[in-house]
Design a protein that fits this description.
Its EC number is 6.5.1.-. By secondary structure, the chain is of the alpha+beta class. It is built from 15 helices and 17 strands. It is 34% helix and 23% strand. It binds one DNA strand of 6 nucleotides through α10 and α12.
DNA sequence: ATGTGC
């Protein structure tokens, strides 16, 4: 074991955590709480970890509901780090009889989407300036207001992108023409869960559905933080047969989208974290972690429907971002084909083994499923395939993990030179210079050890690597 | 994560 980690774990033991390890798999539990399952995390060698993240993990595992709901297992991904709501980013939570709104938070159905395109890298780079100008002209600065009719919006919120498409085929709108809609219809099969869960418009913000229009809610915008749109090059293919089957070839141009449910997820997440507080049984001691589960069956059902509503919105948000990018390529390069490889959520509660599995910043990694692990700005991204590892709760990391807070980099007196931030050679278009600093490569851990640890543990296998050419951040 | 914080 690494000396630094050893010191950290000793400190955690003094703070009331039982700590054990077996190879690279570490487990923690609150001392004296024999009923709680241990919380496990796989750690790559020589990467910084924060004690607070371990604390959050142990408290999550210790959670139970007075009505009998329980936590069955907690597992964290190798990129886990402390989260604001008391739940570490990278936590995977298996429960029965309870769900935890704070274990998803506000970034509901944050996820990844990958397309490849039959434009050569050379041709693309030759028109880079024109491409950037067109991109600035619409969604990524939020200047393009995407609206839709009441039937399409209601169908979207109830059923996801398939419902939206059915209504949209009757009344084409805004950014999509009829020919494009036929392709979108064919691509629904490449969206995890078919791009839809059972939701209901009643959970969307009131302003969102007013006058039967969906507007001013950030539809087809990237969002902040680690979210991005990136043009990439497939720099290496490791599993040729699988990559071929997925339409991915070495040297291809590709684009990747990391975005979520924007204001709709925030609305649902905030409302339900409050609701969980209100619904906590009178007289029952509050968990010291501040993490509050829902245990009443009816409330659980309602929360999941609200979460699904925001998730449906996120699926469409990523779809529209991709559609705008695909159209921009067509404007510049003619009849471009840019098929979807896969779209996968990494912030969602889903049914699992008779209970629920909440992934907070963790990518589903079921057997044979495409897994998309983005690198941070300037870093390689990975297309992998899941191995269905039950010990890891069929989950992989959703990135490299943040190493430094936004504040510590932007205003914490850090060296803001290009070299110190790791920005040398990075081509990034942002709305504000501040973003480049907050999300600079120096803000994140290296992705390679995080990926390697998961390959060695049998959680995922590598299919292809993608190198960034041009990154857009809000 | 969030038209935002430290």
């Amino acid at each position: 074991m690494q000396p630094k980690l050893n010191r950290l774990l000793r400190a955690l033991a003094r703070e009331g955590l039982e700590v054990a390890y077996d190879g690279r798999l570490y487990s923690v539990r609150l001392q004296g709480d024999a009923h709680a399952p241990p919380a496990e995390v796989l750690l790559p060698p020589d990467l910084p970890v924060e004690g607070k993240a371990f604390q959050q993990l142990a408290h999550l595992a210790a959670l139970r509901h007075p009505s009998g709901g329980q936590v069955l297992r907690v597992r964290a991904t190798p990129d886990f780090h402390p989260g604001d709501s008391g739940v570490a980013i990278g936590s995977v939570l298996h429960t029965r009889g309870l769900v935890v709104p704070g274990a998803i938070g506000t970034d509901i159905n944050c996820g990844m989407r990958l397309h490849v395109a039959n434009v050569s890298v050379e041709a693309f780079l030759a028109k880079r300036t024109a491409f950037v100008e067109r991109m600035k002209g619409h969604y990524f600065f939020g200047t393009r207001d995407v609206t839709m009719g009441s039937r399409a919006s209601e169908a979207l919120l109830r059923d996801g992108v398939q419902g939206w498409l059915v209504e949209t085929l009757e009344r084409p709108l805004g950014c999509a023409g009829r020919a494009d809609l036929a392709q979108l219809d064919a691509e629904v099969a490449r969206i995890h869960l078919g791009g839809g869960l059972k939701g209901h418009p009643r959970w969307a913000p009131e302003s969102f559905t007013r006058e039967g229009l969906v507007r001013d809610a950030g539809l087809a915008t990237i969002g902040g933080g680690n979210h991005f749109v990136e043009v990439q090059r497939v720099e290496a293919v490791e599993d040729r047969a699988r990559a071929w089957g997925w339409g991915v070839r070495e040297g291809q141009l590709a684009f990747m989208i990391h975005s979520g449910s924007r204001d709709v997820g925030k609305h649902v997440g905030v409302a339900w974290q409050d609701r969980a507080r209100q619904a906590w049984p009178v007289g029952a001691p509050l968990p010291e972690s501040g993490i509050l589960p829902l245990g009443d069956a009816r409330l659980v059902e309602q929360y999941l429907e609200a979460e699904a509503t925001a998730a449906n919105y996120a699926f469409l948000n990523r779809l529209l971002l991709a559609e705008l990018l695909r159209q921009t390529l067509r404007e510049l390069f003619g009849d471009v084909e840019a098929p979807l490889v896969y779209d996968v959520p990494h912030n969602l509660t889903l049914p699992y083994e008779g209970g629920w599995l909440a992934r907070k910043g963790a990518c589903p990694a079921g057997a044979e499923q495409p897994v998309i692990i983005p690198g941070s700005m300037g870093a390689t991204s990975f297309l992998m395939v899941g191995c269905g590892d039950a010990r890891a709760l069929e989950s992989a990391s959703h990135g490299a993990g943040r190493a430094r807070s936004r504040f510590s980099l932007s205003r914490g007196g850090a060296d803001q030179s290009e070299a110190a931030l790791g920005l040398t050679g990075v081509d990034c278009i942002t709305l504000r210079a501040e973003r480049r600093v907050e999300e600079a490569p120096a803000a994140y851990k290296p992705i390679r050890p995080v990926v390697d640890a998961q390959v060695e543990a049998g959680i995922v296998r590598e299919v292809a690597r993608l190198a960034p050419l041009l990154t857009f951040k809000a």
